[in-house]
Structure formats: C-alpha cells, structure tokens
Specification:
With 417 residues, the chain is of the alpha/beta class. The protein has helices at residues 9-41, 66-78, 110-118, 175-188, 201-213, 235-249, 262-265, 267-276, 292-296, 308-315, 342-350, 362-371, 374-386, 393-408, 412-416; strands spanning 54-60, 83-87, 102-106, 122-127, 143-149, 169-172, 194-197, 223-226, 253-256, 283-285, 300-303, 320-323, 351-354. The protein is 42% helix and 15% strand. Helix 10 links the parallel strand 11 and strand 12. It is globular, with a radius of gyration of 24 Å.
Amino acid sequence: MPHFAYIDPGTGSMLFTILISVVGAAFYALRTFIIKLRFSLSGGRDKKLSMEKIPYVIFSDSKRYWNIFGPICREFDRRGQKLVYMTASEDDPALTEKFEHVECKFIGEGNKAFTKLNFLNAGVLLSTTPGIDVYQWKRSKDVQWYAHVLHAANDATSYRMFGIDYYDSILVSGEYQKEQVRKLEELRNLPKKEVEVVGLTYFDEMKKRLEAEGKKANGDEKVVLLAPSWGGNSLLNKYGERMIDALLATGYHVIIRPHPQSYTSEKDMLDALMAKYPESAQLEWNRDNDNFDVLNRSDILISDFSGVMFDFSLVFDKPIIYADTSFDKGIYDACWLDEEMWTFDILPEIGAQLTEDMIDDIKAVIDTCLTDPKFAAGRDKARLDAWAHPGEATKRTVDYLMAKYEELNPKEEEVDA
C-alpha cells in the first residue's frame, strides 16, 4: 500500500519555509499596524515599544551544549544583564538553575522551536546551531545580530555545507578556525563576517574543575575509554563486535560511551551491542550527560573523528588512539578546501592510529601510547592551535556580545532615560 502521507526531509523543509514565509508576512504586517496604532495613540511617547526587544538571547538545540552556555549565562547573571536562554530540550540542566537576571525556558522541539525563533524580537542572539537560513531556522527580521559559537576545538569546516554562512559573526577557539572561515567566504563570494577568537568556555571550566578535584589515579588497573562518533563510518558501526572483543581480551577495564545521537539514529545497532555485551565488572556503558568523571578516570581514549578526543588530550593531557575510519567530506564545508582538515593533520601528533589489521593486537598499541613521551609535544602544539586565551573564554565572549549590542543600539540608553 503506498504511503501517500510521506514527505522527504528536503520537501518538508521547503514546505515549512513556504508556510513560515506566508505566516511571517501576515505576522509582521499585523504587528506593524498595532505598533503604529499604539504609537499614534500615545502621541509618540509609548516607551514600552522600545522595551519589547530582548537584548540578549541564547538558543540551544540540545541540553548537551549547556557546558558551553552555562558559564556564559552565569557571567551575564553576575553582571546583572538580562538574558533569555531558550532551549529545545525539555530536560536541559539550565531549567533547574536559579538566576536573578537570566530566564531559562523550554520553547519546544524541532519546528516548534524554530517557529518561535523565526519571529523573535531580540538584539543579539548566540547559538551553536548551524544551518540558519539554510533549513527550517530562518533569520527573524527583528533580530539585529546572529552570533555562532563553535562547540569544540576542531575544524570550523566540519559542519554540513553552508552551516555557518549566514551568521553575522563566528566566535572561535583558535586562529586556524578563523582562517578556515575566511577561505570559505572567499570561495563562495560571501561578505566577511566578524570572526572573534575567544577561546572555549567548557575547556576553561573543565580545567578549573580538574585543578580543584585532581586527576584520578587507577593504581595498577588500566581504564580504556571507547568513545566514538556516530554514523555509518563511525568506529562502532565499522568494527563494533570485533573492537569490543579485542578490548575485553586486554584484561583492562573498558568503558564504552556512545555518541548521544547514536541512541536515536542508530538505536538498533546500539541495542544489539548492549545486549550481546552487558555490563560486568570489566565492562560498563556510560551515558552521563556530564563527561568529566569518565574522562578523568580513564587512562586512554579510543575514538574516530569525535571532538571528545581534544577534550581528553588537551584538557586532561592524556594519550589517544584514533581509528582508521574513512571520513567523506562530500557533505561538509571541508570539501571546499584543498588542504587536509586540521583535525586529521594534528591527530598523528597527539595519538596513535589504529588500522583494521591492528585491532586484534590492540593491547600493544595501548601500552605503547601510555608510555611513549612523543605525544606530549603534539598536545602542546594542538593547544596553541585550538585553545586560545585559556581561562578567558567566558569573559571574552560576554564582552563581545555586550559590545556588539551597544554598537547596534548606541542611543537606546539615552532614549530610555
């Protein structure tokens, strides 16, 4: 029986765009009429009209980005600045926070959230979400400035194509990312965005936490963390059972931490692995929202092209093993550039590559990485490339946002007085 109700994602996005355009035109026409009417009736003295705009907004499409936004929200609150944090996760940790000047609210999932954002009235909006003006999320006519902040220390070109093209500014953690943004703009004849090197808030927070709590020592027991990305080329998809069998054969304690998206997009694959390899004294499956503890108590990390490799190596200063999985750049911004991605250039300097023929002898690879001193120099180089202004990211980010708002609204304070 044919499924007449099925709409493919591309068509769905197009229909949603058409609907938003029609509704938007009506919405703005009605609101303009109401504002003009109120202004006329008040004799041009209705100050509330200038107060409808939210000065600062953060949008998060997932609770897992609270490690990026939490420090920023706390800094806004400390400075007494009004901020509205909007999340598409009903269980976002932000919703349990108690702030005086920051309002945290759930605005729905998917298209429901984007619909609200598409009609937002705000000064400066900050987000990690790519694809604005490409997919369902459209720029609101009443938002003055859209700023994107990278959520990891890896390439700015690792987004799906055109992911950051239509932001007004990009906040990055290292100079090499700024260069990548500029190259994309040149190749696509895009106007130059503001690119500000601010550092990485959650790196700074993890470093402070690590200094306060100290590194966990496991004694003679070695703890191996397997934390892959997700998708067809990810480590669990390509080598799942074979990899787990090889790790258990080492006799080391094994922690498997799948990517959060795997629980949604690869549920069948993951359920099968978890059923075949249940938790035991030697094996545990980890899905903590906060990855600090699992990273701190692990001696070595095995991954593929997940950004967690940089958390582990640069903050916790520990060796990694990266699997030899193919990465198809075809759908990513990286395919526009001739040079290799920074991520794949730096990996050989901070860890050992694991090819398929080495999986059965993975214990030897692990032991070598744990004792070879050459990777420490590579980690130092990676920090210089990708982690600018250590300890200053939150201040620099908030300073930038506030300066931008004041630049866009130079007379607002005088008008409101």
